[in-house]
Recover the amino acids of this structure.
């Protein structure tokens, strides 16, 4: 009986140590390591995947860069997305009508939650904007008006 208990304890200790060492290593991404990918027909819009894969199930983190005077037209996503402004002032609006003049300004350090399936438009006005988006994939972007491109000038 003592041998059985001692064997079980040893197995538990070995399993615990194995679990600790099997965990993923710390991930650090420096700004110069971010790989920006331009969006075709995005008027200079770029995106960088920092963690995960937005096209697959699981957590993803992407950085999005809007050049001055570029916004997305109304669209929505199937998943809830969590946004933090890293640089500049990000202009955000809700609804099916593209109205850059009715957007809310969010300066660097601001946070916004986009609930799933909520139509919205967002982007930059007079300066470059970088935001960080987090969500659970797979991520799908659906344009409200499919006859127009996703990106448009904001002035």
């Amino acid at each position: 009986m003592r041998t059985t208990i001692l064997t079980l304890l040893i197995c538990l200790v070995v399993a615990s140590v194995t679990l600790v060492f099997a965990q993923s290593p710390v991930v650090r991404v420096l700004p110069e390591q971010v790989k920006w990918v331009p969006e075709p027909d995005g008027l200079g819009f770029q995106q960088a995947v920092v963690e995960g894969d937005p096209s697959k199930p699981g957590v993803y983190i992407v950085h999005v860069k809007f050049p001055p005077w570029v916004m997305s037209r109304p669209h929505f996503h199937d998943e809830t997305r969590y946004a933090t402004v890293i640089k500049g002032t990000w202009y955000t609006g809700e609804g099916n009508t593209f109205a850059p003049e009715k957007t809310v300004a969010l300066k660097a350090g601001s946070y916004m939650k986009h609930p799933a399936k909520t139509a919205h438009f967002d982007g930059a006005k007079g300066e470059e904007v970088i935001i960080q988006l987090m969500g659970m994939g797979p991520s799908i972007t659906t344009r409200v008006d499919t006859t127009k491109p996703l990106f448009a000038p904001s002035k």
Notes: The mean pLDDT is 89.
